[in-house]
Amino acid sequence: MSFKLTYATMFDPPAELHERFDAALVEVASTLGATHALHIDGVDITAVETDTRSSPIDERRILGHFPLADRTQAQHAMAAAQKAFAGWRATPMAERTRLLRRVADLIEQRIYTISAALTLEVGKNRMEALGEVQETADFFRIYADDFERHDGFEHALPDDPLSGFRSRNRSVMRPYGAWVVIAPFNFPFALAGGPVAAALVTGNTVVFKSATDTPWSGRLLADCLRDAGFPPGVFNYLNGHGKDIGQLLVEDPHTAGITFTGSFAVGSRIVRAMASGAYPRPCIAEMGGKNACIVTASADLERAALGIIRSGFGMGGQKCSALSRLYVDAAVADTLIEKLVEKMAALRIGDPCLRETWLGPMATTNALRNFGRYIPSLEDDGSSILAGGQRLREGDLEHGYFVAPTLAEAPADHPLFREEMFLPIVMLCRVRDREQAMRLANDSPLGLTAGCYGDDDDVAWFFENIEAGVTYANRPQGATTGAWPGYQPFGGWKGSGSTGKAIASFYYLAQYQREQSRTVVE
């Protein structure tokens, strides 16, 4: 591909991108309805039970029939990963990084077909889908580069000051073993590929379970790893329900560590389970956000409105980094609301396969039900809907999961200011000053991303006081969204993350290893 995709550059793509994406849609459409397989111990394996998945764009469009692993197959995958661990751990760094870069190459070669599948499966528009797939390729390259740059995180230490002996010391990082990766439905390619790459490059073997809402993306990632040539058992792909297969993976005695991305409730249960048992095992859990943006009286309101729209309603608010809470100085609230409502009315909502569409459907039936459940509570108790608030059923939208982006104003104690909705609903609250805004922004058990619009003094004050792991100021590209590997590490504080370390940061890969101190006396 002659055009390098990042979240920052995709706002003005060349015509070539659209031509290639449209061609990929035609190609992918010809494969719909196929029956897919698991990948265990180097072999594609059929399942007794399959799950027929349809597109959220039009539920009459069958995407395919996807395998549901049974308990025996999940145990087989864990045993294969455990068996392969010794050989993979001993594989030289150069070979492990070579295979990761081969995966990145394959992803980029297939970027348009994978992105077209993502659009059909998740309902992302083409730019969001292409961005996610390119981001995944970048994860594989960045983690290979990072591991080599740190020489496997091994360090020589000073000799002990012993008379008559030479006592040489060294700190060595070693992989844990069979590592489980459990991915979410909203970024089913990137938030699977990133932790898979990190676990593999550090010498762990992997059992990856896709979200049951988005198994196609998981299978396409598995194809790239299979075709890259990893030894049997080093990478294994499963699909199955969390309460069954996911729970089995958490409890399996071969599970040495887990990376989980999903809700706070489920993530907390996994963290507790991994901390109990015969001994604590590592768990890297990214558990969502209830992200706030502060707009001060000094803000550039046009820039703020752009960033709020993009972060609040991009991908239908189905991002853990999506803007959900908006605290606006009362002096500028009416003007900002006017700008937001005007921009919301101009959004193109519809089939995300079309070039002109900005917002597609909700990804799941559960999201659609939740939208219908939340909207009535925004029409009472002192709250009001300023724009949106309805399901969209007109014309071609009738058979999809489409809803209108919604802006609601409510008092600060409204319960939806605390609940992670994962929907295109932004809650607005007027505040007296920035101090009140900060108190409200930090009054959450979650702390993933946050944004601020204001002058230089506001920005410095915001960074010093906000309780969030990913922070943005005066960003028209997105008030709280848009982190990219190599540019913005991505991780949360408080209930948004279990480790305090961010994805694609200086500290991420070391979490997949444990330290061993080695002393040799000569």
UniProtKB/TrEMBL annotation:
The enzyme's E.C. designation: 1.2.1.88
UniProt pathway: Amino-acid degradation; L-proline degradation into L-glutamate; L-glutamate from L-proline: step 2/2
Parts of the chain that traverse the membrane: 176-201
Aldehyde dehydrogenase domain ranges (all copies): 55-512
GO molecular function ontology, one term from the record: L-glutamate gamma-semialdehyde dehydrogenase activity
Alphabetical list of Pfam families matching this protein: Aldedh (PF00171)
Active-site residues (renumbered): E286
One GO CC term, this protein: cytoplasmic side of plasma membrane
PANTHER family given in the database record: DELTA-1-PYRROLINE-5-CARBOXYLATE DEHYDROGENASE 1, ISOFORM A-RELATED, DELTA-1-PYRROLINE-5-CARBOXYLATE DEHYDROGENASE 2, ISOFORM A-RELATED
Protein's name in the database: L-glutamate gamma-semialdehyde dehydrogenase
